[in-house]
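User: I'm preparing a small set of examples for a lab meeting where we compare how different chains pack in three dimensions. I only have the primary sequence for this one, and I'd like the structure in token form so I can line it up with the others. Please keep the answer compact; I'll paste it straight into my notes.
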Amino acid sequence: MQKPDDAVEIFKINVELYPESFNVYDSLAEAYMLKGEKELAVKNYQKSLELNPNNTNATDMISRILGGQH
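Assistant: Understood. Below is the structure token output for the 70-residue chain.
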């Protein structure tokens, strides 16, 4: 993830291709975090959780972001 702008664009394509995959939203959220775009990161982590309520990474990251720890 040395190129977060490129990563975001790639993960956006993945979301379009695999809209039912929780993992692509989780990955897109991580790329947004690298760019410092916390609101978009939370939005995508939340979508990931909608698709997979057991995604503990998304739960943890949302807590960190909203708690101001990241």
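A couple of notes for your slides: Residues 4-17 form the longest helix (14 residues). Helices lie at 4-17, 22-35, 38-51, 56-66.

User: Perfect, thanks.
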